[in-house]
Amino acid sequence: MNPNLNSVTLATPRRSRLTFEIFGVCAIAVCIIFSGEAFATTKGLSQIVTPDIQPLGDLSLSFQWQSEQIGNPYEFQAELGLTKFFEVAVFQGIKPAETIFATELSLIQKEPYLLSTGFANWSTSGQAPQPYLLGGYYTEHHKLIAGIQAVDNHIQAVLGYAYDITKQYRVQVDFQSGRSNFFTLGVTWTPNDFVQINPAIYFSNERPGNVSGYVVLTFTKHLFGPKDP
To answer: CB within 10 Å: which end of the chain, N or C, has fewer?
Structure first.
């Protein structure tokens, strides 16, 4: 899972509360960086949710920067695999402030075939949850994704493709229909066992010449349960 979030904030909490949230997330990130062995997971594509589930007990913390045309410019994300078939994610927007929730449940998890459902973009700014159904065909190098997502009573198409060149490098494209969404081109770099960097460029569906930037930095640590081999 790694959905792009396009919700609009309606209200901003007090600065003291926001400062506390930023401090808390930064403190957790520092603990992860300096606390022994950790394991990186692929966070998905740039814009769309992906059907692979966060491994059991793996906690990923991310900082995301993106153009205001895409969504909230500054966001933290926490993503946790609660079971082998279910994960939850929370996004905290910084400026403006908002909290966004997402879940994912695996229906089929027998690679190369994947099928997952859940909801994305349930925001404290008033955005209703957006349910989705996604299928995937995952091989060692090629990952194909297709599905649908309900947004404001409209069904949007979701498409994605990733090619894993090596364990360290991935190139990827994705698309979500709808005037407010994008076609994206991106890469994922995994320089070591606990960090990933994913920069991408976004092309507006409404105005393809309108190009925006995006980058996310992710740290992952295994917290509980058996580790995937």
So the answer is: C
